[in-house]
Amino acid sequence: MLEVADPFDLSDFFLFLQLNRRYAHTLKAYATNARRHPSPCQKISLIRDMVVALSDIHESGLAHRDLSEVNIMIDEDFTNKLEDNTPRPLVRVIDFGKSVFVKPEEVQRWSIRETVPKEELELLPMVVLVPDHGYKLYRY
Amino acid sequence: MPGDAYMITQGEDDVSISTMSPASSSLSDGSDCVVSPLELVRSGTFVLNLLLSNSTSKHFVNMVPLSAINYHRRVKHPMDLGTIEQKLWKGYDINQPATGELSTQALVAATGHLQVTEGYSVLQEFEQDLKLIYDNAVYFNPPDDIIYKEAQMFRTLCSGVMRACLERQPFLDYRVPQELYTPSLISFSKPGPLYIFRAHLVKEMDRKMTDISVDLFATLHQPLFEMMNGSDTLSPETPQFVRIYINKNRSLLERCRDEDNAKLAIITDLHTSKPFVESTVIQIEGGAKANISTRMVHVNARVMIVKPIGDRHEMVTVGDLDCPSAWIMVVCVKRLNLQVNVPAKFEKGVLNKMRHEVVPYGPNTKVSIEHQRLFLDALGVMLPDFPDPAPTSLVSASTTASSVPPALSSGPMNKSASAMTPTPMSTSLHGMDSTTTIPPRTPPSIISIIDINPEIEEDPPMKKPKLEVIDDIFPLSEPLLVSDDESTFDLHQVKEEEQVPFLADSPTGLSLATSETTPFSTLEEFPQASSSSAASLPITTLDRMEVDHRCVQPAWRGNESSDMRILSNREQEMLRDLKLSAEDKGVPYINWDTIVPTLTMDSAQGLFKRIYHVQGDSSLVIQNFKDMDKESFEQRVREVACLLKLRGLEGVGQIQSVIDDGKDRLVGLSMTKYVLMRFSRC
Exposed, middle or buried: residue B597 (CB in 10 Å: 0-12, 13-18, 19+)? Predict the structure, then answer.
């Protein structure tokens, strides 16, 4: 999506058309774009928002279990500029396919087993699961 | 007024500088002092050095261009750090004769090209101009503008720097580079090490550098470019001084400063011609001849020979590896337009790779001595211990055969042509260095053309494509290679093992592996919905595509159509619980059959999911679950439960609806779409 920012900024008799390409990327693509590095303000905003998002997830009684740079989407809010006049990055954690609950009542509620063993519940919030190969062969 | 002194006083809250008469000044109490014009330059330069080491000052380094009409209409007294520095030296130029202060040749030269007519007599004027920069910025720019905010940071920075100036009293021990310079530091008649620095113009650095670094280098190097394009005479006796900012190799910069007669060649506005082949026929000992072909390019650039001098200043980090990391003052003694032929390898491997870094220029085994000598001659510098020209017994001639293969440019014809059309290279080519002398391989009576050039590279063979797009018409006889990062698979090797009924009926007989254990993520896979011919439509691209809605059958039906798994009581209970949770969160349940006509299929898929998009709605992405066996059933229900639990949290992808088959069986979900799900791993 293209949007025109301040099309009538005639402050200096020049017409500046700033074409902001609105896009969303994975954190990996956003952070490693060789031609367009996040600014220092964007980086600190990004870090702060990621910590907040994960804190919210954990406070909700969840372990994501698949946090990676491709499971965090970054969009940019061109209407909300940071201190250095760069658009604020918006963080979205996605892909909860491997997520588990870590509160005993939730674990029992969403388990297909009629009764979850007591020793398993006592370990929470530590979760014991079989190792995951990470879908290595399913990547492009 | 000439001869005035100034007093520096420090208040409790702020630093202020005010003029006073010399008689009232005193160094005894440590707070007041009298300084001379040169000490005023030292103090001002000390402050400017600190300001220019901080990227906060970038908006205030250079003069606002006169083309900014509205700015100059509203701002009556524009000011910038460059003008301040010039006024600093102009003040020295005006006031120094009155004080009778000793002046060196370099100090006089530093005042010889100033474009301002007013200078500072006291440091208070200097400070007022710093404040004027801030005042102009906040007057012209609205409070929400970045320059307004930078101006506020600049004011804070100025306050801190002035305080540092007050505490250190830099005029007591600091020497400006102009004081350190003597013409004997650099001489073109004496050999010395050579270093190269490439200063990119904006048009040269817009491809591989970040926006921040391009902005910073373009701004900070503007005085450098103005000096390089100037017409003033430069020489060791009439030098000029300017700052250069570098990104890498700071230690080399200091080496260039400290080594005797070392020089730094600053290259900018580099233009390179297309490569051409230069053939040189040499006569070697014994009468045989050798043909040397070298891939060359013609280089045209603006060059200035300088010598770093004074302290190296570290830049305040701005968080970008491409940004300037340090700067140093250089004394500029020569400028020239460089026009020379250089080996393509040198241009590609050195000149073109440099990114605001200092690199040493020395004996290079990949470039012949003669080519290095030509480059040095074009710059007018000499290297120490550089090999002398080869013995005159090696008579050489050359010719240029643009775009002609080496084989065509060899032979007797080449020799005669070379005598008629010498290239600029050949005019100064005296012979081969002894290290490149080729022993005769054939009897002297036989003319032998030996191509010893290792630099002519044949075009590399075409790489075999790693992935061929599956097409409905590609012949079966040709193997289809599909590979990922780790391994390569020949589809034909697996097709017989992994045949799927509906694909066996396809027109080409091609079978696509659809087993979940087969690692073909790049292959298009249809939902395991049906074995009907409608589902065997060929996939022609790996990109997102529109498909007939008959193809968009939920993956869960692939198993259940023939073998509908009966849900256990616990599973049914979980589904009911899930529905209650969805109602609590206000997430609707929708029927898969009602959305099928609006769906388009995406190439992304995983073990358990298939991805669809909604026609006309780019805000949603649909995930369709596959293979709802007992284990994956729990996982999918839990995923939906997690998403419902996180519904409304700002930093989490949001579920929009739960999809069932109309009989309370979970078959998928829809999410807010943040990006094309092509690369998703479900």
Answer: exposed
Q: What is the CATH number of the domain that holds A115?
A: 1.10.510.10
pLDDT per position as a tens digit, B15-64: 443 333 333 333 333 444 567 888 888 889 989 999 999 888 989 999 99
- Tell me the C-alpha distance between B547 and B552, whole Å: 7
Contact (Cβ atoms closer than 8 angstroms) between residue B470 and residue B507: no
Pick from A24, A36, A138: which is nearest to B674 by CB?
A24
Distance from CA of A9 to the nearest CA of B (A): 12
Q: Is B658 in a helix, a strand, or coil?
A: strand
Owning domain of residue A69: 24-125
Any idea which residue has 């026009």 for tokens? B339
Helix axes B123-140, B81-99, angle to 10 degrees: 160
- What distance in Å separates the CA atoms of residue B303 and residue B335, rounded to the nearest whole number? 6
Question: In this structure, what DSSP letter does residue B463 have?
Answer: P
Q: Is A137 on the interface with B (CB under 8 A)?
A: yes
Assign residue B14 a region (left: φ > 0; alpha: ψ between -120 and 50; beta: otherwise).
beta
Is residue B644 predicted with pLDDT exceeding 90?
yes
List chain B residues with CB under 8 Å of A13. Answer: 69-70
Chain B residue numbers with beta carbons less than 8 Å from the beta carbon of A43 are 319
Give the tens place of pLDDT for each residue, B377-407: 888 888 887 776 554 433 333 433 333 333 3
Measured between CA atoms, how close is B141 to chain A, in angstroms? 9
Report the C-alpha gap between B499 and B491 in whole angstroms.
11
pLDDT above 90 for B93:
no
Please report where in the chains the tokens 């700052």 appear, as a residue: B243
Residue type at position A122: E
Q: Is there a domain that residue A140 lies in?
A: no
- Ordered by where they begin, the domains of chain B are 5-178 (1.20.920.10), 183-451 (no CATH), 462-521 (no CATH), 524-682 (3.30.200.20)
Q: Give the pLDDT confidence score for residue A6 in this predicted structure.
A: 52
**In-domain check, residue A2:** no
Instruction: Quote the CA–CA distance of B593 and B613 in Å, as a whole number.
Output: 15
Q: Are A72 and A26 in contact (CB under 8 A)?
A: yes
Contact between A81 and A39 under an 8 Å Cβ cutoff? The reply is: no
State the smallest CA–CA distance between residue A51 and chain B in angstroms. Answer: 9
Q: Is residue A131 part of a domain?
A: no
Nearest CA in chain B to A100: B638
Note which residues in 32-91 of chain A have CB less than 8 A from chain B: 34-37, 39-40, 43, 49-50, 52-54, 56-57, 60-62, 70-71, 73, 75, 83-85, 91
DSSP letter, residue B349: I
Contact present, B637 and A110 (Cβ < 8 Å) = yes
Which are the contacts of B354, defined by CB distance < 8 A and separation ≥ 6? Answer: B196, B197, B198, B267
What is the complex's ipTM, to 2 decimals?
Answer: 0.82
Contact B645 A60 (CB under 8 A): yes
Q: Which two tokens stand for residue B231?
A: 């017409």
d(CA B427, CA B373): 13
- Is residue A53 in some structural domain? yes
Number of domains in chain A: 1
Q: Determine, for residues A140 and B642 on separate chains, whether the beta-carbon distance falls below 8 Å.
A: no
